[in-house]
Write a structure and sequence with these properties.
single chain; mainly beta; Pectate Lyase C-like; 3 domains; seven-stranded parallel beta sheet; glycosidase
């Protein structure tokens, strides 16, 4: 056996790859290196260093193609599972989804616990199965990332939920989310394009310390309940520098449930041609609270409901029966919100008679009607508010 010159990492005085010339078969811990043929090959040593605890500045790259993924329209789920098992076993490892390939997956669980600092790099396209029977055992999740620490999903690729056939069905059907992150800590999600979900694009549930940035989330306007990002039971989350164009928005207190939302800050956002701008929507009969919420530096362009609080949400054609309980909306600050309203009512604060909105502040809010021959108005019911600076159209101080 002869070795060629080693390839050294600039940051560590250890070789990362060596060329090995063999005239016979070689075995290094049967499960590490089964055979090298009668030729000179380059072998990635980062995996071996990882196993024995030696430092290396280069991550261990795991390509799904090396585990049998075809990217030819057939089901690649098993190849992705095998690649994930490999990545999960090694620190500083990366699962690679190559560019210029389209992979079809059934519902799949990328679960931990795994070794520290692993990631998934999606440069190609991942598409969901369109066969409803594939979701019988996982009706709410397509891609489920569960119980992971110090994990990152990144890349410039696309995750396509193939949701069109589900949009034609009743919106009451509990359909699958494209990507769910459940019970993760120190999580980063960046650079991805997520489109056409069956229902929700991305869901963060019971996570801690989340950074989501540079995302493009798109579904057509006629796609019911295709919410952009759901955040449930999650602490310390940042969503930044992203484009979100979807067919619906989330709500609080559905089915007489309890909501607890606090300390939310929305800064430097542009809404263009959307149905709603900054909206808080709660169902009658719910409980809990939504408080300490700040909307600041927001630009509206031809938005139907630029500012809206609806504590009496009802999705029935007939009026819903009045219920005494509601989600308390408290301490909401609208600052420096400007632009145009596609409807006459630019500010709509429709609060509960039994539990009015309180601590609402409008500061430097200037909204005009898109149609120049029409004056925008504000409609404010059962709300205690204060106005600061210039506010147009104005609300009464309290109702």
């Amino acid at each position: 056996m002869a070795c060629s010159n080693p390839i050294l990492d600039d940051r560590e005085d250890v070789p990362l790859r060596i060329g090995i010339t063999l005239g016979d078969q070689l075995f290094i811990n049967d499960d590490q290196l089964h055979s090298l043929k009668y030729e000179t090959e380059t072998f990635d040593l980062s995996r071996l260093y990882n196993q024995v605890g030696l430092p290396t500045g280069s991550p261990y790259m795991v390509n799904v193609d090396d585990f049998g993924a075809k990217g030819d329209g057939t089901d690649d789920s098993e190849a992705f599972r095998k690649a994930w098992e490999e990545v999960c076993s090694y620190s500083n490892s990366v699962l690679v989804v190559p560019e210029d390939r389209i992979y079809h997956l059934k519902p799949i669980n990328f679960s931990g616990p795994c070794n520290s600092h692993i990631s998934m790099k999606i440069d190609g396209t991942i598409k969901a199965s369109v066969n409803p029977s594939d979701y019988e055992h996982s009706p709410q999740h397509w891609l489920l990332f569960q119980n992971l620490r110090n994990f990152e999903v990144k890349g410039g690729g696309t995750i396509n939920g193939n949701g069109k056939i589900w949009w034609k069905k009743s919106c009451k059907i509990d359909k699958s989310r494209v990507a769910t992150f459940l019970g993760c800590k120190n999580l980063k999600v960046s650079g991805l394009r997520v489109r056409n979900p069956q229902q929700v694009h991305i869901s963060f549930q019971k996570c801690v310390n989340v950074k989501a940035r540079n995302l493009i989330i798109i579904a057509p306007g006629n796609s019911p309940n295709t919410d952009g990002i759901h955040v449930t039971g999650t602490q310390n989350i940042q969503i930044m520098n992203s484009i979100i164009k979807t067919g619906d928005i989330g709500s609080l207190g559905k089915g007489n449930s309890e909501a607890r939302v606090l300390d939310v800050s929305v800064n430097r956002v542009k809404f263009s041609g959307s149905t709603n701008g900054v909206r808080i929507k709660t169902w009658q009969g719910g409980s809990g609270f939504a408080k300490n919420i700040k909307f600041q530096d927001v630009l509206m362009h031809n938005v139907s409901n630029p500012i809206i609080i609806d504590q009496n949400y009802c999705d029935q054609i007939k009026p819903c029966a009045k219920q005494p309980s509601a989600v308390q909306v408290e301490n909401v600050w609208y600052k420096n919100i400007r632009g145009t309203s596609a409807s006459k009512v630019a500010i709509q604060l429709n609060c509960s008679k039994s539990l009015p909105c309180k601590g609402i502040v409008l500061q430097d809010v200037i909204l005009a009607a898109t149609q120049t021959d029409q004056n925008a108005i504000a409609s404010c019911d059962n709300v205690y508010l204060a106005s600061r600076g210039r506010v147009s159209p104005p609300c009464s101080e309290s109702e």
